[in-house]
Amino acid sequence: MATGPVIEDKTFLEFHDNDIIVRSWKVEDLPTVLVLCKKFAVTQNMPTKFMTTKKLAEDGFGEHPWFHSWLAETTTSGEPITIGFAMVSLSWDMCRGLVLEGLYTDENWRKKGVARKLVKAVAEFALENSCKYIKWMSLKDNDNANSFYNKIAKLYGPVNECYVKVT
Description:
About 30% of the residues lie in helices and about 25% in strands. It has about 170 residues and is of the alpha+beta class. A six-stranded mixed beta sheet has the order 1-2-3-4-5-6. The longest helix has 15 residues, at about 115-130. GO terms for molecular function: N-acetyltransferase activity.
C-alpha cells in the first residue's frame, strides 16, 4: 500500500478562469464526450471501435456506475464548448481509492490550466468519498502527461510513480 503526505497545499490545482467550467457529465453530453474519449484512446494506442454513447451511458450512469467523470467547458465564444474530460473508477487497495482512467484536454487548450481544474475536481471527489489515494498511469513516451503528473507528485510527495495520497 502506498503511503505519503497529506494534500494540504492545493496551489498547483488552483486555477481561476471564469471562462472554464468543470462539471459532471450528463447523459446529453455523451455524443460530444465520445469524440474526446476517442481522441484520448488514440493517444493511448487503445482501440476505439468499442466506444459508443450507449456503452458510456450504460457504464457511467445508473445505480452503480463503473466510472465517474467530469468535463471542462469554455464559454469564450459565447456557447459552451467541451475542451477536456477526466474519468475515474473506484479502487480498493486495502483502503478506498480512485484510478484516474482518463485525463484529456483538447490540443488547442493544453497548458492553459484545464487539466489542473479537472484534477482538482477528481481530488475533491476523492476527499468527499473518503478515498485515501489517486492512482494514475501514462505511457512512458507521453512527455506532456508525465511532466504534469510529476508536478503533482512534487507538490504532494511522490508515493511511488503513480500514487498520490489524498487524506
